[in-house]
């Protein structure tokens, strides 16, 4: 009672726990409608191919789902090696980040360029990303370019995504 909006941010392995919850209890949560206002997947350490099969569990319970991915995230590159070279959802390959219906994918590679960093927490450090998160939670505007005009809209091979400038 009294709660007007619920926003959810999952970072790294927290996305695996979220995926488990949504794939096992997602039907029950989905019956309540889209109870989560905005769901943010930051540097998700999930198998990108598997996410392509389960993303509907995410979009069914949230009014908006945003993926922040980075090509220079060294923690995710290590996770990929450990997990048999399965591409991680938080990675950005040559064709851009993973794109699925109902999820706004944002490539933040240009702001994750610290040479001596893992670039795994750029989502909590970069002013541009924090401004986008603030605008997302405040307005819920979609597509992302409406709330952050500096984002570049990219028509990639996988579909439409956005790139944050450096």
- What is the chain-wise order of helices and strands? EHEHEHEHHHEE
* Overall average residue pLDDT: 87
What does the largest sheet look like? 6 strands, mixed
Based on secondary structure, the structural category is alpha/beta
The rounded Rg comes to 15 Å
Uncertain runs: none
What is the strand content? 15-25%
Number of helices: 6
Shape: globular
- Terminal Cα separation, in Å? 41 Å
Going across the biggest sheet, name each strand in turn: 1-2-3-4-6-5
Compile the SSE list and pairings:
Layout: E1 7-11, H1 14-31, E2 36-42, H2 48-61, E3 62-69, H3 74-82, E4 103-107, H4 122-125, H5 127-139, H6 144-147, E5 152-155, E6 160-163
Parallel strand pairs: 1-2, 2-3, 3-4, 4-6
Antiparallel strand pairs: 5-6
Helix pairs in contact: 1-2
Describe the 3D structure.
This protein is of the alpha/beta class and 166 residues long. It has 6 helices and 6 strands, in the order βαβαβαβαααββ. The protein has helices at residues 14-31, 48-61, 74-82, 122-125, 127-139, 144-147, and strands at 7-11, 36-42, 62-69, 103-107, 152-155, 160-163. A 6-stranded mixed beta sheet has the order 1-2-3-4-6-5. Strand 2, helix 2 and strand 3 form a beta-alpha-beta unit. Helix 1 (14-31) crosses helix 2. The longest helix has 18 residues, at 14-31. The model has no long low-confidence stretch (mean pLDDT 87).
